[in-house]
Amino acid sequence: MNPSPEPWVWIAAFLTLCIFSFLFRDNIFYSFAEHLFVGISAGYLIAITWHNQIYPNLVLPLFMQGNLVYIIPLALGLCYFTRFIPKIGYLVRLPIAFLLGWGSGVGIPALFQRDILKQTQGTLLIREAFSKWDTGLWAIIILIGVLSVLVYFFFSKERKGIMKPAANLGIIFLMLGFGASFGYTVMSRISLLIGRLQFLLGDWLGIIK
Amino acid sequence: MNIFKALTKIPRQIIFLVIALAVAIPLIVPLGLPVKVMPKSKQLFAAIDSLGPQSKPVLISIDFDPQSMPELYPMLLAILRHCFARDIKVILMALWPQAPGLAEMALEQIPKEFNKEYSKDYAFLGYKFGVTAILLGMGENIKSVFPVDYYGTPLDSLKITADIKNYEDISHIVTLSTGDPGWRAWLLFAQSRYNASIGIGVTAVSAADVYPYVETGQVIGLLAGMKGAAEYEILVQRNGYSEEKRTAVQGMDAQSLGHLFIMIFIIIGNIGYFFSRRRSNSGRQK
Questions:
Q1: Of A187, B34, B121, B207, which residue has the fewest beta carbons closer than 10 angstroms?
Q2: Which residues of B touch A111 (CB under 8 A)?
């Protein structure tokens, strides 16, 4: 065992143990670490927003370099604060409308390309998919999976005849998907625990190298 | 209380203790369980491995914070080692405000191992807020979005960035992403709109969401969680690029044992639930 001489490592270890103490029950040490984290995060975000965003993108070009075009984003930004003055509170709609219009215009075509066109293309059974037997088999399974899940979410027709087994097959594919997601979630949470234990046993106590 | 009912009511503190021991013991006494490298990790490795000193730089976007370090930080170290070992130029940037500290930590360590110089072999552009404007702007002109690097030096003055304009001057973009902004935005704007080549490293919790994009070829490769990081570390070592400590590989024994005990608890809970319900049903029928 070779504990770290660094005071910051000891502080980090203490705060880690404070957070872990919640596993037993809620207590003052956990509350202390939680409040400290929230406070530091908020302070850090305010400082970094000023230094990385407001100063270089607004204060510098508008007030130092005299670029008057930047009055427009400044005015739009200030409109958000009109919510605090009920008489002119309606002005908040201006920046929201601008953001919604701009965001939709930019996002919808790209989203269509990413999630619909390319994904539909990937579901098609093309000749290249059958260059190997396993890729061909997976291509067929993906096609069946997509179609059966779509049938499951098709609510305009009563589930009778072929629709019923197809929808049931869709449920199986959905459950497999949920199972995979849950498995990955467990893996992720265990990884976080491993990371903390590597810090406590390695960086702090020096038990592992 | 019968035994089956007791199985469904194991105190959570005991479950936490067992999981903690199952994870801690293999870290102290490694078991050396094998780690199989998955094809999607190999794809990302192969894409970077195909580059060389004359290739365009690789852009690594650090889109995570310290909370996701156990899964994504080893990926960052392994990819940097891979790039520097092959003399590939690297540009780093961040979409998360907490990421610059992580980038600096990695850049203090890895370039020294390979005698790499700032400006000539790598550069760090820093963090910018406003993901949509950033990624779209970079598609037109990277220097208009990042006129200076993280340390305030104009990009025109850095050797590595002097001649780059937009995504066309980047060979691959690798986003190490823990949520939004992250891989979704990179795919949405850089890949769909500008056809940039994107590799993704994600926390395991997001991995299932990325798979469809790998299958369609929209993503060149995927590293999923700590396992993905371990796989990349193994590939880097197997190809003789680095012999340094492999943090993610070190955690794989603990990961396997942790999963094993969670599976045991799930089975125990289900057995208890199934038999205690059956017993109460048969009691009611009598």
A1: B34
A2: 188, 192
